[in-house]
Amino acid sequence: MDSTPMPEPLRRAIHQLVSEAVQNCQEVLRYTEPDQAHTWKRMTLYRATDAADTMNMVAMLIAAYCERTGMAPETLQSYLQVGQQELRSAGPQEESRAHVAGLLGEALSYEAMRTSTNREEHREGQLEAERAKRPEDDPQKLFTEACLHGLKARLCEDVDSLDSYLPPQVAAMARKVAEVLEVPELATTS
User: What is the 8-class DSSP label of residue 3?
Assistant: First the structure.
């Protein structure tokens, strides 16, 4: 097994791209809030696809490096998990439609019920809808949301806005995160 560390220029590029993806993910969360009713469809899709594209760039940069350093093509394909890829250009697939139907409490069509994957996705949507009715959220999810919102609020120097659009529990946690973060100062060169 190769124990060579990632080259520093590649590591820095990856860190920059992941940072961009995280910012896009935070904006996806931001546009789900009730005060964004007029733009949520457009902006959540823009930011979600931006994040996905950015993470795809991360994977392709790493893959190009692995290819350059002699990784076997079948190993690279395995690591890229190409079987999991779905093309957005084809639009939502039947499984996604079944999942949304489950989330919204709608029945599956007879045609959609004929596929086990559709039935599984529908059931998963139903389970998510049930979990959403309970006020207690997964602590990890709350923490992640609070970190993303707190980081963005600190970087934008707009910590007070957290209370205007987030549920109180998330806003309180995000405020705590924002309060402990220091805004990095840009290094100046002489």
Answer: -
